[in-house]
Automatic annotation (TrEMBL):
InterPro entries: BMP_lipoprotein, Peripla_BP_I, PnrA-like. Its main location: membrane. It is found in: Cell membrane. It comes from the Bacteria. This is BMP family protein. The keyword Lipoprotein applies. Belongs to the BMP lipoprotein family.
Amino acid sequence: MHFQGRKKWIIGLILLVTAALISGCGTEQASPLSDKTKIGIMLSDVGLGDQSFSDAAFRGLMKARDENGIIFDYKEISKDKTYDDGFEELAQENCDLIVGLGFMVKDSMEKSAKQHPDQQFLLIDETSDLPNIASITFKEEEGSFLAGALAAMASRTNHVGFIGGVDAPVIHKFQAGFEQGVKMVDPDMAVDVKYAGDFGKADLGASIAKQMIGEGADVIYTAAGFTGVGALQEAVRHGAYAIGVDSDQYFVAEKAVISSMMKNVDVAVYKAVIDFEKNGGKFAEQHMVFGLMDNGVGLAPIRVISLMQHEQKQLDELKQKLVSGEITVQIP
């Protein structure tokens, strides 16, 4: 199915299934929902159907709805709607908490937070000094270190690749962890690095992957959203291996994806929302950080290949050393 059609189908299905339970944040009259915690979320640029970041955050909110009875609304950018517009709409709906997904929404969130100082915000993947903005960040470098070690174990050409979405500090954490994990297993292994400049272009990701594979890389790790999906699928066409990101992306390219670096945005969003609700509309921590120890990042099940016993032991030991702090990833 073409992506745009698939995206519309996914969104339509989600709305159909959840329409009776998901409510807009604003209400002018008393209703059975009036006493429930109301969450609004401004999604990242690709939006629902990205099979990655936005979908994961949405799952976290659905879990909070199903298990704790919160209600929520969401906004996406389009040719007619900017991040500024989305945040203003959510603020006017009197949400108890407004979530902004991705570092690219920071400027618009801070603008809205200054205009609505009594409104509480939650920024994911960045931090802010404003008192009414809490934040969630991840130790992507820890999970990416394990992805790099796995890539080195899987490579048959001693040559692997990394594709980043945009050249930004948060993606540098993925790159640094991956490169250092590769070098921990094989200091002499070649690592290609390329940035696509976009999170939403599958064709571009496929083109970059094709080039990398042509130059000898046989395992490609993507931190590029839907652009990365194209790279994963290109790996299948060339008999190469790939490592997905954010969600378990095995089903995107079943013959290529040996694992995915799980950035458990759903877990973090769920925990933060429940914390917010239990603390009477406040966060116990202003800046929340999720790593391997907190189940914030990690590897999805290893498929397609089978590690030898000593390789699995090494991977397990590396994980424990990251958790204990014996290994720390150096981030430029």
